[in-house]
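Box 3.1 A note on notation
Throughout this textbook, protein chains are presented in two layers. The first layer is the amino acid sequence; the second is a token string describing backbone geometry. Keep the layers aligned when reading.
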Amino acid sequence: MITQNGQGLIGKPADEVLGTFFEKNLVSAALRAGRFLQLSKDAQAELLGDLLRPEAAAIPTEIHQAAVPAEVFFSGATALDLDSVRNLEAAMIKKRAECTATLRELGEPIEIPARPDVPTAFQCQRRLDDLRMKQNSLVREKEALLNKWQESQSKARADLERLQRARAEALDLKGEAALMEALEKEVEVTKAEETLSRLRFEIADLEGQIKNAEKKAGKCPTCGHEVDSDDLVGRYKEGISARKSRIPTLESLVGKYEPMHVIKEKLRKHREAVSDIVRLEKVLSETPAEVPEPDTTSIDGEIADLEGRMQKGQQIVAETAKYEADRAHYLAQVEKKKALEAKREACDTIAKWAGPTGVQTQMMGDKIGVFKGAVNDVMHKLGYDIQIEETSGLILVGRFPIGTQFRPSELSESEQWRFSVAFQVAIAKVSGLGFVVLDRADVLVGENRGRFMQAVVDAGLDQVFVLASIDRKVDFPPEITVFDLELEEGRTIVA
């Protein structure tokens, strides 16, 4: 029975209250003798794990610092439980091995020494570009000289050709005099052309009237009066004859000269040709007959020299670029190696801290030691000793002093009960429960029962309930209160 708020609780209510402060299996193992041995191996391991589970270990500052290069993320956690510590150790061992393998594969980078006094590839390229610009300038200078010479030669040839054409178009004095003469007769010729044109028109008109008069014989073709048609036709013919007689003279005058527009065009071309001849002869007289091609030997020499320097420069740029790439690769390998070494060292630091010889020992050592000591405080007095393997939790029971060791399941019934008593006491002490219920204490007889009772008294628990069936009164230490229970009419009473 336990008391809560002044009220006594027994049975299931008492179990429920205890369950709010202690793990159910721990309470069950403390209150029921042999309960631990009845559990499966997995359940035993789980119970021991709950009982011996250490408090979370605080993460030291140096581990937080090592977490950065080790690429570990605690997500704001300041402490780790045992499982987390073990998982962390395994992860760090794996990472450390990966770093070692990568470092082994990386090897020792081949040193590419620095060349502080050597221009960079960029500087070499700038110098190369300057040389190319200078060479291009010289090439343009040469082209300008040659182009100017070629233009002067082309111009001289063109002027000569124009002079020849002008001379061909210019007239001699006789030709010019003939054109001038024709030009002076322009008014007379023009008048003759007009008269000739008028006469031909009048002749055509008279010929038309003659035909009309012949059709209308006896009548005037214009007014219709009676006339002598023969006389009229005769007059028309006389008029035609008189006009035709003038035509040869006029045609002779007009045909003597070319059309005036042709004469004027020839005179215009003649005058332009004369002007061109004067100008071109003056230009050509001032132009040397044969201008030699400019001498570009010095420019060609400079261009060739620059070309050679540029070829060497391109080779230097390529070599410098390769050196810089090799140097950058070397420095990257060095930095990568440093980073891997720092990561491996950080992983090693964390792995050692989280390993069995590190914080795990601190977390496990005290509780296991306390629990084993609590069990052996009772077991030694009963002539037995237990050992607990820290890594597997395996429990071995042997004679005290140490002799042949057995697993609890291999012990005899009374030995199993003594082990269970010691185990119950240890659970109560380590868990803080503070009391146990020891049933079937009658399995021990004689001296073993006395030693058992003394061991229980010396265990230092708050309360111990011992249940046993006895056939005679037993002297118990004064610290033990004895309740003699008897069955009366189906009820248990205190005798």
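Residues 1-11, 17-21 have pLDDT under 50 and may be disordered. The domain at 2-57+360-494 is CATH 3.40.50.300 (Rossmann fold).
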